[in-house]
Design a protein that fits this description.
The chain has 254 residues and is α+β, with helices and mostly antiparallel strands. It has 5 helices and 10 strands; from the N terminus they run βαββαβββαβββααβ. The chain folds into 2 domains: 2-104, Alpha-Beta Plaits, CATH 3.30.70.580; 107-239, 2-Layer Sandwich (Alpha-Beta Plaits), CATH 3.30.70. α1 packs across α2 (72-80), α3 (136-143) crosses α4 (194-206) and α3 runs parallel beside α5 (212-221). The mean pLDDT is 96. Formation of pseudouridine at positions 38, 39 and 40 in the anticodon stem and loop of transfer RNAs.
Length: 254
């Protein structure tokens, strides 16, 4: 059997998340069908991180095992020919069985894009619009308590299936551009809805609806009902996934 790794990106607006569903309107469903057309056999796709409905990926990594012997170009151009224009395979690589798209990953980076303006801008469809002014300095200060290893139960969706709510955040930076902002969050792994739930609570601080110290209180409470609402999906992108250098995964996106 050959183990093939693919690097892909997608616009999540029209998909109901990554994971396969009976109706077939997911990224995994479209990609599986396209790969099977080339492999001429059933395949099982494993991804680095499942994205929710409406969430995008700048860098997603998947792997599958196949008896088919195809040139790497077939897994790129051939598969892309059968995909909708909102999904693209960027690179392919054959690796040994020690590689696993999910379990070999050492960390993941998400970005959440947003902008504050009196009216919505249709061209900023990958960002979340907020119509109120934000205190970005207060948001930065409040976010400092999230760094390190914590129990993130307060920011975990009720349907989350993770065995443990403990995660480690290595960095959480708020970046200001000319007409928008984004949080870049780097961690070992993330719980279901964790980034969007964190964003909802950070926005409460940014609007001065809650004090900066409130975020630490919510974190330490481990109580989801004390945190703010889940923020919209369209501002969130899986930005990067880090692997041991031995696998050369970044070559998929070169």
């Amino acid at each position: 059997m050959n183990r093939v790794a693919l690097g892909l990106c997608y616009d999540g607006h029209e998909f109901e998340g990554w994971q396969t569903q009976p109706h077939g309107r997911t990224v995994q469903d479209h990609l599986t069908k396209a790969i099977e057309a080339i492999a001429q056999e059933p395949i099982a796709l494993i991804c680095a991180g499942r994205t929710d409905t409406g969430v995008h990926a700048r860098q997603q990594v998947v792997h599958f095992d196949t008896a088919a012997d195809r040139p790497l170009t077939a897994w790129i151009k051939g598969v892309n020919n059968s995909l909708p224009p909102t999904i693209s395979v960027l690179g392919a690589k054959q690796l040994d069985a020690s590689f696993h798209a999910r379990f070999s990953a050492v960390s993941r980076t998400y970005r959440y894009y947003f902008y504050s303006a009196p009216v919505r801008d249709p061209f900023k469809r990958f960002m979340t619009w907020v119509h109120y002014p934000l205190d970005l300095a207060a948001m930065r200060r409040a976010a400092e308590c999230l760094l390190g290893t914590h129990d993130f139960s307060a920011f975990r969706a009720s349907q989350c299936q993770a065995a443990s709510p403990v995660r480690t955040l290595f960095a959480l930076n708020l970046i200001e551009a000319v007409d928008h902002c984004y949080f870049e969050i780097h961690g070992n792994a993330f719980l279901h809805h964790m980034v969007r739930n964190l964003m909802g609570s950070l926005m409460e601080v940014g609007q001065h609806r809650q004090a900066e110290s409130w975020l630490r209180d919510v974190l330490e409470s481990r109580n989801r009902s004390l945190a703010a609402k889940t923020y919209p999906a369209q501002g969130l992108s899986l930005w990067n996934i880090e692997y041991p250098e031995q696998y050369g995964i970044q070559e998929l996106f070169a």
